[in-house]
Design goal:
The protein is of the alpha/beta class and about 290 residues long. The protein is about 45% helix and about 20% strand. It has a five-stranded mixed sheet with strand order 10-9-11-8-12, with helices on both faces. Strand 2 and strand 3 form a beta hairpin. Helix 3 packs antiparallel against helix 11 and helix 10 crosses helix 11. The longest helix has about 35 residues. The N and C termini lie far apart (about 90 Å).
C-alpha cells in the first residue's frame, strides 16, 4: 500500500512539475507579448502609420492635384525620417474629428497628427506628447453678415458652424449662447456651410481660420479669441511608454533641439513666419 501511494505521489509530482514547466514559458511569452511596444512594431514594419485630417488646411488637406499636403503631413514625414531614415516611409489614414480616437485605440494607426488640441478629458482617452505647435480658437464670419464682434454675432438671426466635439459646444454656449448652430464632422464641411451662406460664422483653430480668410476675400476673422493659447499635440493609445517617450522626445527636438531647423522650414512654409525661438544655452555665470 505504501509502495503504491509513493508511486502515485511521484507520478503526481512529475505531472505537476511538467505542467508548471509548460505554464511558465507560456506565461512569460504572454507577458512579453503584452509589453511589446508599438515602437518595435513600427521599426519591424519599417513604416509609420499616421491618423490625420484631410479637410483642415493648412494642417492637413487635399490639394488641387489630389495630394495630401499640409503642416501636419510635413511634420509626420519629418518624424518618419528621424525614426526610419526616410520621410516617405509613412502611410496616412484620413479620419474625422471623432474618428481619430478609435483610429489609434484600435491599432489602425500608430499615432495621430491631426491639429488636435490637448484637453484633460481627451487625455483620459489617449496619451498626448507635449505640444508641437501653439494654437488658439477664433471665429470667422462672412463679411456680408456685417458683424465685427462676438456680441454682435450673438443673435438667433445668425448660424454658427461647429465641429461635433464637446469643446466647441461648450465654447458656443459660453460666448454665443443665442446663436443657432449647425454641427459637422469635418472642417471642410464647416467651411462649405460658411462659404455657401448656410452659416454666417464658424469656430476653429486660429491658424486654420487665418488660412481660410487669406484665401477667401469674403471672409474675415473676428479679433476676439475664444480661448487662451492652447497646444496641439501628437496622440497615441495609452499605456505604451516606449512609443510615447520616443514621440515626446521627437517633439522636444523639433521645437527646441536638434531638429529645430527642419521644423522651422516646415513652419515657415505653412504659416509664413518663424516658430517660437529656441532657448540658447549660456555658460556665463549669473
Amino acid at each position: 500500500m505504501r509502495h503504491s501511494l509513493k508511486k502515485l505521489c511521484g507520478a503526481l509530482s512529475l505531472l505537476i512539475g511538467c505542467s508548471m514547466g509548460a505554464f511558465i514559458p507560456a506565461a512569460a511569452s504572454a507577458q512579453a507579448s503584452q509589453t511589446d511596444s508599438r515602437l518595435q512594431t513600427i521599426l519591424k514594419r519599417d513604416k509609420l502609420i499616421v491618423a490625420t485630417f484631410s479637410t483642415a488646411p493648412p494642417f492637413g488637406f487635399t490639394d488641387e492635384k489630389g495630394k495630401l499636403v499640409g503642416f501636419d503631413i510635413d511634420i509626420s514625414r519629418l518624424i518618419a525620417k528621424s525614426l526610419l531614415g526616410d520621410e516617405n516611409k509613412v502611410e496616412f489614414v484620413s479620419v474625422t474629428s471623432e474618428g481619430r480616437w478609435p483610429a489609434v485605440d484600435s491599432g489602425r494607426a500608430d499615432i495621430g497628427v491631426s491639429s488636435t488640441t490637448v484637453y484633460p478629458d481627451r487625455a483620459i482617452r489617449v496619451a498626448f506628447t507635449r505640444p508641437y505647435i501653439d494654437s488658439g480658437m477664433s471665429v470667422a464670419v462672412r463679411k456680408d453678415a456685417n458683424v465685427n464682434t462676438l456680441a454682435e454675432l450673438n443673435s438667433n438671426k445668425y448660424t454658427l458652424a461647429n465641429l461635433s466635439n464637446p469643446q466647441m459646444m461648450d465654447r458656443q454656449k459660453r460666448f454665443l449662447p443665442d446663436i443657432k448652430v449647425l454641427t459637422f464632422d469635418t472642417p471642410s464641411s464647416q467651411f462649405l456651410a460658411l462659404k455657401s451662406g448656410q452659416a454666417q460664422a464658424m469656430q476653429m483653430d486660429t491658424p486654420v481660420l487665418n488660412w481660410y480668410a487669406a484665401n477667401n476675400q469674403e471672409l474675415k476673422v473676428l479679433p476676439e479669441a475664444l480661448a487662451v493659447t492652447s497646444g496641439n499635440a501628437i496622440f497615441m493609445k495609452q499605456g505604451d511608454f516606449q512609443l510615447w517617450l520616443w514621440m515626446d522626445t521627437m517633439v522636444q527636438e523639433m521645437t527646441a533641439g536638434s531638429r529645430y531647423n527642419e521644423y522651422t522650414e516646415i513652419y515657415r512654409k505653412w504659416f509664413g513666419r518663424n516658430p517660437p525661438p529656441q532657448r540658447f544655452y549660456s555658460a556665463a555665470a549669473n
